[in-house]
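Hey L., structure's done. Input below.
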Amino acid sequence: MAIDQRQQVREQTQHLIAKFATGDAQHLPSLFRSIYGDHYLSAEVYRPEAFISANANGTCNSLVALDRCGLPIGHLGILRSAPHAGVRELGQGVVDLNHRTQGLLGQLIDACISEADRDPGCHGLFGAALTNHVFSQRALWKAEFVDVGFEIGFVPARMMQIEAPGAGPTATVLQYRAMDDAPSKVCYLPSAYSDLALALYEQMRLTRVYATSDQPLDLAGPGQMEVIDLPRFDLVRINVWRIGNDLTAYIGRAVAEARRKGRTMVQLALSLNSPCTDAAVEAMRAAGFWFGALLPRWMDDDALLLQRAIGRPWFGDIELYTNDAKALLRFVQEDAARQPVLL
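Output:
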């Protein structure tokens, strides 16, 4: 929307939802700092040039809420943060404390969905809503996002000192909204989580071709994996694009390195494209991993998020909006309790 059009609309309304303009960038860091201090999840939100660059190169498509003076009072981005570019994240959401009763977050979410719907390359949107309050969860639920899992211990307590101080790290509930279906996509479901996965696919109204996962790991060739260290989150994330016979040894080394670096959580995104999926999941459960989430199209193929704590996982201070999320959390807690706690 052109600057003069912005001004015309503001003269008639209390606020405006608009696409990001370069002039907004200089005001956004102070908006994030007023809510999160200097500890927001991404350090990039404190750099005006980062908003300009990301919106120019397509890694972020920002929408802003503007007050009548034209100053940003809210922001939400469509981010390319998943391994597959066709899955986007609704992230970097923030609303000024003085404007939180006007439904701005819901309006920003609706505007982002409209943007994504016009993009034929976007297969789905997900959000990682904080669990120390329910208003962001509620806003995504109203926009027909489905609860698909949790990232336990994801946000270190130091990041929440202003927004909502807690005794431990804050979990996020992962919520997903499919923008299209992939009914011919083959999916190998592990037996430990097949019933849950089928229920989640039904809730998301997604169709898959379910294949039998019955091959042992030793019949697989070498795997394709990558380790991403995220020290800001005290976290290591591992993407397994192709399950291989070296999976157990590779993950063991990655966990040992995470422990050495002082990380507290390890996440494992396992592509569901292999007949060795069941054997891989059982091996990871024996290594202390437990259910995190079902992630449609995460690697273009669907993926299963597994996670494990280095020490005992923190399940405290979790507030959830939907009954589905509450039931899913009970499953996650029970699954974590069944797996060995490895220090």
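The domain at 186-338 is CATH 3.40.630.30 (Aminopeptidase). DSSP finds nine helices and 14 strands in the chain.

-- N.
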